[in-house]
Amino acid sequence: MNAVESNSTAATRERILDAAEALFAEHGLAGTAVRDIARDVGLTAASLYNHFDGKQDLYEAVLERGVRPLIEIMQQAEAEGSEERDRGELIERVMQHLGTRPHLPRLIHHEVISGGSYLAKLGRTWLRPLIATGVAEMKRQSDTNWSEDEFPYVLGAWMNLVFGHFAMAPMLGIVFDNDPLAPESIERQTRFLQKLARLMATGDSEA
Fold first, then answer.
1. Burial readout 133-172 (b: 16 or more C-beta within 10 A, e: otherwise)
2. Interacting residues of 66 by C-beta distance below 8 A, sequence separation 6+
3. Where does residue 105 rank: exposed (0-12), middle (13-18), buried (19+ CB within 10 A)?
4. Other CB atoms closer than 10 Å to residue 12's CB: what's the count?
5. CATH code for the domain defined by 3-202
6. What does each of the 207 residues of the chain score in pLDDT, given as a tens digit?
7. What's phi and psi for 49, nearest 5 deg?
8. Which residues contact 73 (CB under 8 A, 6 or more apart)?
9. Using CA atoms, how far apart are residues 188 and 172, in angstroms rounded to an integer?
10. Domain ranges across the chain
11. pTM
């Protein structure tokens, strides 16, 4: 395969993942058919199988593309030894990533609410490592008001806060009469979360 063919294949794969992510978020794993994903990309189902082995493989690829970078962001923060200033940067990086994958939190919420067949694997394979990495980062920090046994619950609450902005975007758009997924809205939510992080850590919004 030459470079042009390789780039074309990679671009097609990304388009397939984009379409799959949106459909899985709306209908869940069980409610989405491969032919629907293929249709949204302008392919036949047979052509789609040239890129992915099947619906399960595609679902896992969507999670790999969406959740793996979040784990890596947390791991990098721990490795760099971030403190308060970098905590704000960590939140910004997480929000920026989800801004490029806005359907991912809705996909996860759909699986949770529907009690889907992939729920247990989703929790163990993807969300547990994400929480564990965050707990390791909290253990390294010195300026926290939380006890170590509370760390997992703090991270769980943060997951709800961050993912919730994107998962609830259709409703928030109606309530606030704006687009929660617009860049300026994501920036506003990022600033709010950064301030909240300071309050939770030190009790001082200006710290």
1. bbbebbeebeebeeeeeebeebbeebbeebbebbbebeeb
2. 21, 101, 104, 107
3. buried
4. 17
5. 1.10.357.10
6. 555 556 788 899 999 999 999 999 999 999 999 999 999 999 999 999 999 999 999 999 999 999 999 999 988 877 776 554 578 899 999 999 999 999 999 999 999 999 988 999 999 999 999 899 888 888 877 777 888 999 999 999 999 999 999 999 999 999 999 999 999 999 999 999 999 988 876 655 454
7. -70, -10
8. 90, 93, 94, 97
9. 14
10. 3-202
11. 0.87
Residue listed under structure tokens 């809705």: 106
* Residue in the block written with tokens 């939770």: 200
Residues written for the chain: 207
